Amino acid sequence: MILVASSKCSESIQLGDLQNLTLLRQPMRIYLDNATLQCTLGEILWEAPPGVYQLCWCSQNSGCGLASFRAAAGHLQVTCPQGFYSPSSRCRACGRGFFCPGGTTARFPCMGGGTTLGVNAVASTDCLCDRGYFEELGTCKLCPTSTYKSTAGSSECARCPSNFTTFKPGAVSNSSCIEESSSSKDVQSNTSEVPAIVFNLSLSLAEGDADETVRKQLRAALLSSILASVRLDASVVELNFANVTNASFLGRRLAQSLMAAVTMRYPTTEDAEGLQSELDWNALRDELGLALQQDENLKGFEVSAISAVELSSVNVVCPANAAKPPGVTLMRPEDCACNPGFGYDEGACRACALGEYKSALSNERCVKCPEWTSTERAGATEPEECKCEAGRYGEDQCAHCPKGFYCPGSGKSVPCPFNSTTESGGSSSSADCKCLPGHQPSEPSDSPPCEPCQPGRYKRSVSNEKCFETCPSNANSPPASTEPGNCSCNEDHYAQLNDEDELDRCAPCTFNGLRCSGGFLQNGSHAQPEAKVGWYKTGKTLAVQCLVRDAAGASVCQGENRCAEGSTGWLCGECPAQWGRRGHLEFCRQCPDSSSAWLATSILLDLGRITSLNFIMAVLSAQGATKQMKLHTAILRIFQRWKDACSVLLSVNLTTMTAFPWSEEEASEEEACDNCTKQLLWPPEVTDAIDGIFALFSIVPDMNVGFMAQCHAQKLFGDKWYKAAMLAPAVYYLCLPVLTILATLLICSIVVYVVLPLARISGLFYRKEAEALADRVLEVLKRKRPTDSTEPGIARLVTLVNESLKGKALEEKDLSDVLDALDPTKLAKGPKVETLRHAVVETGASGVSAAELLETDDCKIKEAICKHLRPEMYLGLFKPEPPPRRLLWDSVPVIWLTLMALWPELLEKFLHMIRCAPMVEDRTDELKSPVHRLLPHPDVLCLRDNHVPLAAMSLCGLFTWCFGLPLALFARILLLRQNRQDHENRRRYGYFIQGFEPRFWYWDLVVKRADIGMMLVVAYTSVADDVKAKLLLFPIISGIQLGITTWVRPYANPQSEILDFLEFVLLCVRFVLFSTVAALLIFFPSSSVVWIWATFLIVLLAAAAAYAGLHFLAQVLRTVSNELKMDTEQEMQETQMDREWLENSKNPRQEGRKTFRKVQATKEKLMKVAQISVDWLLTMFEPDEQLKFCWSADQAMPDLSEPNEKKERLIPRLRSSQAAESLSHRSCGRRSDFPSTLP
């Protein structure tokens, strides 16, 4: 049998104290089960006291009384489970803030600032940071100021709202957050009511005395045990022996019991209630008892009982001169802070001594006042109470009186009187104040003691002396100047500095394009010459006039090297990215969005403009080549060359032109203008009018391909946009002749293969009237050959004509109704045959009479008729329905004319690409040296870097198109030699040689183009660097050309030298134009005189243009008049034949005759009205002139002469463009009226 005993089995048996385990209180039987001894002990309850028990046994046969269990059978160990511990004879809950691993191990507290979420923590990992603490590296630290933590756990401290903070670290609630702006000087309260847990301990002492020493030890032991159990600070727990006073307690013998009152303060009611409900008070009692038993001096005490635990509140009162901080719950008096004016010293708040202050509610020491300061009382609360001693001043610290002040000892500094100061600091009297630099003592006694120095004078030192130092000549200084650096140059002067960058002298500002405002700049440096509006500063004293003007006519240079919007770079002559200019010296415009579409459109329009206009000119030239007397093309060519030469004046901006030095001096003397730049004051309206006159004759404006090419190149090449924009127009103009050749072939193909066939289908004819008349005669001769002719010669002529015209295609309607009623003899003698005679005579045998024609060999007559009636070329250029190769051959006249028409434009564009202008700039060696810059792109230095490819393209274009093309055409015509006047060659090259004497056929290709080339070279290159030099060369070149042309007289004389006279007039106008401008520049008259001469020039140009236009119109009217006369004569002949047919018809109808007469009468009236109208218009330009025409068989050409009395009237004023074409062949001396000249 087994017995559980709490003592050794060999000693007296004591039964174990296992509550409610009755089974263990009596012997238990061991029985054998399957060869194993077993014993049932039962289940150990929670109330079982932990410990080690002995198992004692005895044999059942021995009776097994208590004394019989002497044999040890083993041990029985009873321990507490995890989360529990045994402070005495019972297992107790571990408690909040502790963890209990279980077994024989005691409980362990969590780390400082740590707690547990329950009372049965089993390991250290169950410990978490308590409220007001956060975890860092395995430890719990107080939440810093401006943060709080209201719950235990692993969360971070929460930050107070914006502009809020906490008074001290470790805040456990957001109520601790206070406004940062709240003053810590405000004392709110010195008392705080906090919740508390109150209970009593009943202590008993069996014997012995409780003296004061024992009492203190007892108090300390109890407090230590209580603090260890509840984990509170000693300052918030109070323990008092409530029933014993100090008087009776001392030395009194404790016979029975002692009552100790315990008060534990908590920050919140929730904390107090939590402890009240969670703390195992029995365990606390056991802990207290165990703590007393462990102290040798306190073993006699025993905690007999703990009274009921109550939740109460206590008032925590701050010590004297302390108060409750804002946002802080007072748990102990130590939580109070010393009031302002009181410092924390040796655990108490003591008033700040003299010379100290404290302004905040805190437990800090008082702050000593700055040196040389003190307070007037103890307990100072503000630093402002620290006052300086006499002779010093300041608010934060005492210092010597500063310079310009004196300190009489009041702690404040007193400024010296106005415009005065002291020589050094530390002054204590107003007598130490002296006049500031730049000031001098005042003369009147009642005025301020010091007054400023006069302008132009300065004083450097602090003294009571006068201002005797002066600025250099032409310089001034503001009042109260203190040094030479205050002196600045007057207006119209600029500063010259010495080696120390001080003003040395003020030199006159007499530089063109620069203005000197004088004074200082914002950065304090001396103002230097700055560019005027319209000028660009290239050096310290150098400026270049800007050439580009905006849409309003104002210069893009806005002065001081500032550029208008859309302009940048040197001379403000460059365009920024995504900007471009349409022409030379034009202002920059912003590029359109779809530059590629605009570029393609502008190229097509430009090619269409060039080819269409020159195609028309080629048609006029080709038609004029068939008749020697047509001068339309020659007049247009003369006017175009004149316009090209005069247009160079537009390349010069006369409105900003300055005079020559001698002219400027004279003008300054007359108008009393000192140091001013005189300008010509040319009226811009006159320049616009000249441009308008020349633009009026351009018909189609420029398409701005260069502008679009610049914009498109910028988008294509990105970062390299500048170089691409500069080269793109050059590429276009270099390829333009090739593009125009292709465009010319295209327009010729359209005309030949589309327009002309449509015209033939619509009934329009492009052959000469003589051919149509010959076709009608041919029809007559085919159907009604004359059998009986009274004139054998006529009959033979008709036969020859018939034979010559065999196989001729007819294009007119069938005339059988008319031919049936005609008599062959009358037909042979009729007007149609007569007209045919004239046609043969005019083209095949000019100068041969009708009788001689009849006697001429038949072969020659056939040849003459065939030559006259052969098919003509359409528009004088194209064969009917030519194949492509023939079309290319027929298009050569148009191609030559188009290429040569491009010559002035290409020459101008290519010259612009190498138009380098010298600009004087400052160099690093301080020498003024001209730098050649590309004028269209001033940022580019000529023949450097970016200019090399552009110059190469320019030279290529100049040699290929501007020099090589005219040279090739000249060589081609030169090789024709005697065949230049051949019909085919005149048709092909007639535009260039028409109107000239045969020996001067080269005049337009060589002389005129050399003239235009020289004008353009002077205008658009640096042959003449100065613009004024260009204007002087223009009249010289014009005068040379006028003299050569007047002397040589290269034009032919078919119409009283009308072309020579027109050329002479236009060259005179050109010479007068450039000479007048040069004279105005040389003599520099007043603005009113300039206006008068400018108006005269614009009127002269307009009159010259109108004069050339009237000549052209006169030629047109002459042609129309002659054609109307021939149409009238032909119509009269046809009407006579139709009338004879009606009279001789077999069954004539009376009504038909009347209708015929009415129709013929109406037709005759219309023809007559047209003739009269044209003749009337023609008389406005030329009066009628009577000429005598004699035609005889012994002369090679007809003889034209005028009566003697008419000779004076034959002096031409307006030369006609065509001689008389209607000649009478009947008799010598018959007079015809041919218009010739105007009176």
Automatic annotation (TrEMBL):
InterPro entries (alphabetical): Growth_fac_rcpt_cys_sf (IPR009030), Tyr-kin_ephrin_A/B_rcpt-like (IPR011641)
Q: Where are the transmembrane segments?
A: 730-759, 958-979, 1032-1052, 1064-1084, 1090-1114
- Per UniProt, residues of the Tyrosine-protein kinase ephrin type A/B receptor-like domain are 135-177, 347-386
Keywords annotated in UniProt: Membrane, Transmembrane, Transmembrane helix
Q: Which SUPFAM superfamilies match?
A: Growth factor receptor domain
Give the top-rank taxon of the lineage listed in the UniProt record for this protein.
Eukaryota
Transmembrane as a keyword of this entry, yes or no, is: yes
Region Disordered, as annotated, extends over: 1198-1239
- PANTHER family linked: G PROTEIN-COUPLED RECEPTOR-RELATED, OUTER MEMBRANE PROTEIN PMPC-RELATED
Kindly provide the name given to this protein in its UniProt entry: Svep1 protein
Gene name of the record: Svep1
